[in-house]
């Protein structure tokens, strides 16, 4: 009887039920499907004549690449973002970055909730797993998670409020600088909101001709860019926790403490390393005075989190500076943030595991908390996924372009970690290379979180153990 009713149901009902069933069976695959669908929609939009300047259609490779870069908040581009797009095209770029910023599984779960008519348990699990893939773990969930299921609704509201409030405040504070640069009032308002959104979402697109070079001496404007990138790269669970318990650190979860501590240590360490390494080999740094060098080092260390903006020509940096930036970009920002990379908590867990092993301890302990072994296994999987993606991408592109290897590696890591800084390799790629780089960006943004969620969901109990034997390692 139910089968007969299902067959006689309208087409849209059958499609909705099919999507609901697919989302229940495989949330991570559903998330990939949703992100891919969004990219296809925006590819069609960007390829249309109305999105191009002078009503000119955009080539498929460039349209697809821009769609991937926008939805994955990567910031890399094969066209001049300031001149290639019409006002409507730029508006779609702005909208796409907002969609991509909220997260892979969160987007999928919200759309799933719209389809099913409510935010059920499965949708809440998917949103919670966007902040922590272990939420899809089969079995008891450890205490101290980034977001509890009861707080998921508050998190969704927090994401929307954070996007709107932070970007609005940053944009208002930017307006005097943009107007002082000589832009009319209307353009100043648009540029301010575009820059604020591009910074908070860690995209790195610039809407004006000349980009940040126009504001190179405006430390107020550049500092606002840095602040917005920092807030975006902390992650929505961290912002949610800080909003509730800003002055009560004892109430912060382990995730919040680990994210903030590792983020600031990497940021400060990056500044110090850039000040030591860059002035020696990079002509761009030698042109600055002492104060400007410190600011540029801080700016570059911040943008390596996944910000994507730059006030020096990346191609003019020496090999050591490029390699240092590669390492910071690969680590990226906080989990469930607008930043990319393997995430700072993943890096922290691996580092803590190495320290624990060196001290002969059987467990990872930090901030008076013990980290379960499955978290370490998940972290190792994410790092291996990232390293494999970068290695294969670099190998393929090295056979497509004659650019120096350090330039190719830089752009591949920038694409995987959705950073957006480029040595110029990406813009000069043929169509085949453009498609490869688009795939790298997609895997970097979607692959890590969905891989982690899929691995966490697939873990099952083991009823017996095989005999133990130790292979030689090292």
UniProtKB/TrEMBL annotation:
Presence of the UniProt keyword Oxidoreductase in the record: no
Keyword Oxidoreductase on entry: no
Subcellular location: Cell membrane
GO molecular function, one term: monoatomic cation transmembrane transporter activity
GO biological process, one term: metal ion transport
Cellular component terms per the entry's GO annotation: plasma membrane
Keywords noted in UniProt: Cell membrane, Ion transport, Membrane, Transmembrane, Transmembrane helix, Transport
Superkingdom: Bacteria
Main location: membrane
TM segment ranges: 30-53, 59-79, 91-115, 155-181, 220-242, 263-285, 327-354, 375-401, 407-427, 434-457
Topology of this chain in the membrane: Multi-pass membrane protein
Annotated InterPro entries: Cat_transpt (IPR003445)
Pfam family, one: TrkH
Family annotation (PANTHER family): KTR SYSTEM POTASSIUM UPTAKE PROTEIN B, TRK SYSTEM POTASSIUM UPTAKE PROTEIN TRKG-RELATED
Name of the featured protein: Trk-type K+ transport system membrane component
Source organism (scientific name): Alpinimonas psychrophila
């Amino acid at each position: 009887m139910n089968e007969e009713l299902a067959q006689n149901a309208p087409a849209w009902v059958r499609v909705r039920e099919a999507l609901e069933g697919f989302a229940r069976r495989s949330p991570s695959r559903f998330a990939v499907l949703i992100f891919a669908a969004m990219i296809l929609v925006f590819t069609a939009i960007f390829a249309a004549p109305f999105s191009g300047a002078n009503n000119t259609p955009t080539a498929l490779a460039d349209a697809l690449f821009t769609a991937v870069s926008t939805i994955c908040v990567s910031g890399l581009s094969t066209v001049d973002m300031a001149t290639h797009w019409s006002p409507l095209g730029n508006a779609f770029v702005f909208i796409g970055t907002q969609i991509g910023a909220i997260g892979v599984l969160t987007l999928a779960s919200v759309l799933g909730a719209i389809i099913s008519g409510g935010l059920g348990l499965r949708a809440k699990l998917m949103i919670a797993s966007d902040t922590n893939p272990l939420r899809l773990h089969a079995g008891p969930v450890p205490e101290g998670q980034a977001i509890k299921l009861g707080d998921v609704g508050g998190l969704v509201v927090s994401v929307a409020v954070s996007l709107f409030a932070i970007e609005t405040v940053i944009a208002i504070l930017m307006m005097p600088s943009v107007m002082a640069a000589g832009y009319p009032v209307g353009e100043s308002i648009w540029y301010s909101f575009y820059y604020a959104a591009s910074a908070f979402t860690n995209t790195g697109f610039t809407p004006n001709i000349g980009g940040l070079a126009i504001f190179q001496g405006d430390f107020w404007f550049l500092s606002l860019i840095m602040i917005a990138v920092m807030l975006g790269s902390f992650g929505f669970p961290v912002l949610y926790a800080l909003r509730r318990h800003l002055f009560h650190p004892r109430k912060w979860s382990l995730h919040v403490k680990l994210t903030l501590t590792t983020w600031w240590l990497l940021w400060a360490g990056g500044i110090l390393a850039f000040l030591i390494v860059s002035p020696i080999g990079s002509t761009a740094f030698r042109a600055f005075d002492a104060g400007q060098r410190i600011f540029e080092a801080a700016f570059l260390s911040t943008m390596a989190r996944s910000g994507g903006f730059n006030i020096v020509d990346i191609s003019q940096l020496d090999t050591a500076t490029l390699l240092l930036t590669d390492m910071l970009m690969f680590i990226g920002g906080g989990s469930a943030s607008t930043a990319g990379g393997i995430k700072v908590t993943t890096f922290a867990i691996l580092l803590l595991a190495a320290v624990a092993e060196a001290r002969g301890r059987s467990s990872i302990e930090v901030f008076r908390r013990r980290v379960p072994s499955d978290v370490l296994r998940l972290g190792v999987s994410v790092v291996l996924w990232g390293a494999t993606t970068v290695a294969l991408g670099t190998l393929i592109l090295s056979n497509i372009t004659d650019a120096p290897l350090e330039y190719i590696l830089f752009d591949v890591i920038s694409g995987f970690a959705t950073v957006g800084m480029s040595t110029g390799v990406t813009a000069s790629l043929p169509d085949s290379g453009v498609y490869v780089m688009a795939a790298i960006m997609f895997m970097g943004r979607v692959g890590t979180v969905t891989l982690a969620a899929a691995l966490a969901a697939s873990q099952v109990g083991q009823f017996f153990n095989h005999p133990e034997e130790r292979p030689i390692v090292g």
